[in-house]
Amino acid sequence: MDMAGEQPAERPVAAGVAEFQGEYGAYSFSEKLLQKIWLRGAFDRAALTTSDGVRVRVHHPGRWNLLGGPDFKDARLRLGDGPELTGDIELHLHAKDWAVHGHASDPAYDRVILHVVLFPPDPGQCTRARDGRELPVVALLPLLHHDLEQFAAEEAVEALANRPASRLLAEFAPLSPEECAARLRRHARARWEQKVRFARLRVDRLGWTAACHHAALEILGYRFNRAPMLRLAAAWPLDQWERGGVEVSMLADGEMWNRQGVRPANLPARRLGQYAAWVRAVPDWTGRLVRIGCGLPVGSLGPAAGAARRTHGLADWRRRLAGEVCGGVLGGPRLDTLVCDGFLPLIAAESGRDLGGLWQHWYPGDLPPSLMLALRELGLAGGRAQPAAHGPGQGLLGWLLDQELSDGRSGAG
Description:
- This protein is 48% helix and 13% strand.
- By secondary structure, the protein is an alpha+beta fold.
- Helix 6 packs antiparallel against helix 7.
- The longest helix has 30 residues, at 177-206.
């Protein structure tokens, strides 16, 4: 895992963008994505230190500057036991990019108080301001909540979430429904294997119980509050929730939450209250998940979602997971997203059982509306024989992600 210290092989493709070879194909990682990670605090902020070991406490990440000059303005932070500093922050993939981009001689960067990079700097590498001062440098790669490939995949999915799916119809229209379904199954299978890999990395890093706890809170925070939920999961382990030692109202009132554009059902107080009720109802929910996971159907389950659901009793499994694991607190699309993005990949990673067929035919969850519409128009969702399912939706996303990467390569020349 990247955060364990192994750096992926990198190939620059454009200014501020690097391409890496992942286990399931190439992916790109941009400075803009790094900026989002900094803004959202999607890293272990408690362990943030400079390259020479000085602790950095971030009181405010700054205002994201999308114009010229430093990436973040008026940030507030404290270095070690020193006073609170106010100034600008510049981000790069590599520490050497500070000099390469000419910032060392540019007065627009005189107020920079911290240089944030993705990769740890080379020995002896330092960042100097125009007046010769050495600026503190922090590297985020060892502190990321996920590996680079997962961040890149999730960022691409987020970018596609509200995009019209007209391109899909033009691409798949010449294909028969059988050919279309087969192509999407291939893309979906790659997505499933990628999710299992991410889950395995999480279990290896955290252990089973903490991995489940982190995944559950992260998915409850989709899409706008994932990073704060992960910070909260690290600060408040599951055993504290079991003992009732978590004050939900206090946590929900913090400044770390994004409330703009968040529907009432997804507000932090609502989701944290659900999780507290869930843990009160089923304190040993991670153990129950293991036990139920041992009985889940494995293999392909056949090509038709409707028949698979009836034959293998997916509605009953759904009720069991909702009641026996989640205490009846969660239901609807968010429960299905929790099952498909959290439970099934975690169980598969821990047990080695192939739950890819079950994942393919599970209920769609929080699938973007444009992709659901495309599934219907392609004849892949609708009716008793072919109900909307998670796999075809993920197949569409997988196909779009491949197209995005292909377009990016051609655009980069």
